[in-house]
């Protein structure tokens, strides 16, 4: 009986790994998801736009990291430029919006983490754009966090 319990645990662990991996792959955003979310942002009320912009920044960052890893540097840099534009919109909309601000901050923190990883993996030519994007995301994330704590 002593050996049956570890064997069962090993079996459950090994059988659960493919399910976890497929769940991770299913959550990676594609261009269609980004386009759909961008359309949703345009139709959303102003109270929801800040969070949706942050979600869009996170999805675009994930997509950009994947494109850079696949060798599509032009597409990745275009996406990073769009992320910079969205951080400006978040900066403007966060001051007047206190709804879902903590979720906004979490999305931005995740995007900043992924951008920091991209910074270390990027070539010398691409680093200035990634550094600038990371700085903007960090700044907006800090502003959102300060607003969360000032409530």
Topology:
Blueprint: H1 4-26, H2 31-43, H3 46-70, H4 73-94, H5 101-121, H6 127-150
Helix pairs in contact: 2-3, 3-4, 3-5, 4-6, 5-6
Helix fraction, binned, reads over 70%
Q: Which value, in Å, is the CA radius of gyration?
A: 19 Å
Mean pLDDT: 82
State the low-pLDDT regions, or none. Answer: 6-26
By DSSP (H or I, 4+ residues per run), the number of helices equals 6
* Number of strand segments: 0
Judged by helices, strands and strand pairing, the structural class is mainly alpha
SSE string, helices as H and strands as E: HHHHHH
- The number of distinct structural domains comes to 1
Structural write-up:
The protein is mainly alpha-helical and 151 residues long. It has one domain. The protein is 85% helix and 0% strand. The chain has six helices and no strands. The chain has helices at 4-26, 31-43, 46-70, 73-94, 101-121, 127-150. The protein is globular and about 40 Å long. The N and C termini lie far apart (56 Å).
